[in-house]
Amino acid sequence: MKSDTPSVIFTWDGVRRGARMCMPLAFASFFGGLGFGILAGDTGLSLAQAMGMSALVFAGASQMVAMDVWTFPPAVLGLAIAAFAINIRHVVMGAALRPWLRGLPLLRSHAALLMMTDANWAQAMAVRRKGELDAAILVGSGLVMWLGWVSGTGVGQAAGNLIADPKTFGVDMIVPAFFALTLPSLWPGVRHLHPWVVAAAVAVVVHALLPHGTWHVVAGGLVGAAVGGLSRE
């Protein structure tokens, strides 16, 4: 018996529509990359290194934290753990996309997940709830955000090298400001507030016990993500 349920599609038109839909967010991504580029230059990364990191990693929050704790030579294990803790939320986000991507070939579904960010994921989920079938929306929207982030990184790194002491312009406040600006887009509503509260409480306690380093970020991220995953309806 033939199913009446519409099938998922993946088209170039979806890529184009996703790109147009996410263009305002691409400008925000550019300015976020600008801030990261300035921090990267101040940390000692070259233009190629900073842009390469943005192009390959493409994870704003973890890149910002990496610059905040960067050492020479880099403490690779510590950076990896911090990035994992911050980005573990993507496991839950990817699971939410499973009903949409499940019917696609593996390469196409992975291409969509590769371009997933907090902002375009939320946008894609919103249009999905309205009946959108084209999963390429996620690729197009992520692609323009990626271009904004990488180009902003290049401009920021180049401009940062022209500033003798970036901290005089408040560059050291970019990391907390970045997180403050991204919080509203991630707000889950009061019903789903408890993982945030738990994560914040754990981070405060761990910071009191281990005031040096960024272990409070790692602990808060891991515990908060675990609570959110376990309580997901």
Automatic annotation (TrEMBL):
Listed transmembrane segments: 21-41, 75-97, 135-156, 168-187, 193-210
**Where this protein primarily resides, as one coarse class?**
membrane
Q: What top-level branch of life does the organism fall under?
A: Bacteria
Q: Which UniProt keywords apply?
A: Cell membrane, Membrane, Transmembrane, Transmembrane helix, Transport
Can you name a GO cellular component term?
plasma membrane
| GO terms, biological process | L-valine transmembrane transport
* Protein's membrane topology: Multi-pass membrane protein
Q: Which InterPro entries match?
A: Brnchd-chn_aa_trnsp_permease
Q: Where in the cell is it found?
A: Cell membrane
Can you tell me which residues the record assigns to a coiled coil? none
Spell out the family assignment given in the record's similarity comment: Belongs to the AzlC family.
> This protein is called what?
Predicted branched-chain amino acid permease (Azaleucine resistance)
Naturally occurring in which organism (per UniProt): Thalassobaculum litoreum DSM 18839
The upper taxonomy is: Bacteria, Pseudomonadati, Pseudomonadota, Alphaproteobacteria, Rhodospirillales
